[in-house]
Amino acid sequence: MALPDHASADGRGRGGGGADDTGIRILSVLTGLVVAGLLIFAPHASQDRWGAADPLAAVLLLWSMGAGFASGLGLADRLPSVVRLLLSSPACLGALVLAVFQIAGH
Q: Does the pLDDT of residue 60 top 60, yes or no?
């Protein structure tokens, strides 16, 4: 018995995708937008308690923003696997969590 060439109605099959992938992509784009807004409207979030710049927090926030936009908009799909891993949705969340820990340590 041969398998059908098209994806089934519930998103399983050879076309992949599905509703779960769309939800993760929307969440990644929203994360990128929120972090971009944070960096634009509250740049003091990436400073330490003395007002000096915290480069690690800034880099982690920028990485989270870039990964959110790249994975959410599908820009990372055409890149090599290592770069795709660094710009994935889990990398976006991981960089954001690390940035929150870095900022909370101030």
A: yes
Q: Which residues of 38-68 are buried (b: 16+ CB within 10 A; e: fewer)?
A: beeeeeebbeeeeeeebeebbebbbbbbbbb
User: pLDDT digit string (tens) for 9-54?
Assistant: 545 444 545 554 555 689 999 999 999 999 999 998 888 889 899 9
CA 17 and chain centroid, separation:
18
Q: Nearest CA to 87 among 104, 63, 106, 103?
A: 63
Higher pLDDT, 97 or 46: 97
**Between the CA of residue 19 and those of 9, 49, 59, 85, what are the distances in Å?**
11, 43, 31, 21
